[in-house]
Write a structure and sequence with these properties.
Elements lengths: L1 H4 L2 H14 L3 H20 L9 H10 L4 H20 L28 H9 L6 H22 L2
């Protein structure tokens, strides 16, 4: 592995990054997988850890056949890992820090519009005999009013 070939400082940085800096087990697993995959890519292209450049990181990301969110995860893992290598004086500069990630657009489904009659029915069916019902009516009325204003402003 490239890390062990780079010496004891690199091995220490690897263990520090994977086992000490990342506390969430799911994040740790995802980052470790992403970094190992990148290091295998670099080994196949005969790149040493200290000679990895932004071009290597960019071409690796371009070659991934993943969704943009997964590519962003890989880039984040590499940035954090190389930050640790820089702080441990294994590499001089972080080659992943200048690489731009893909733009990720999250498109959610549209919330169906509530009709005027549905809004009136909802307001009529609220129990206003207690404070909780009065509170709910006030909140829902504000939501209905602001949504109606937002809709008419378009």
């Amino acid at each position: 592995m490239l890390v062990t070939d780079a010496g004891p400082a690199a091995s220490f940085a690897w263990e520090e990054f994977i086992y000490a800096k990342i506390r969430n087990p799911h994040t740790r697993s995802a980052y470790e997988h992403a970094i190992r995959q990148f290091l295998q890519h670099c080994e196949q292209h005969k790149r040493e850890l200290v000679h990895i450049s932004p071009r290597d990181v960019g071409s690796y990301l371009d070659g991934l056949d993943y969704a943009p969110a997964t590519k962003k995860l890989h880039l984040s893992a590499l940035r954090h890992f190389f930050d640790t290598l820089v702080s441990r004086h294994v590499v001089v500069l972080n080659p992943a820090s200048s690489v731009r990630g893909e733009r990720l657009q999250v498109v959610e489904g549209k919330t169906p519009e509530i009709s005027i009659e549905q809004a009136r029915k909802l307001m009529r069916n609220l129990d206003t005999t207690c404070v909780v019902g009065l509170r709910d009516r006030a909140i829902i009325a504000i939501l209905i009013y602001t949504a109606a204003r937002s809709r008419s402003d378009r």
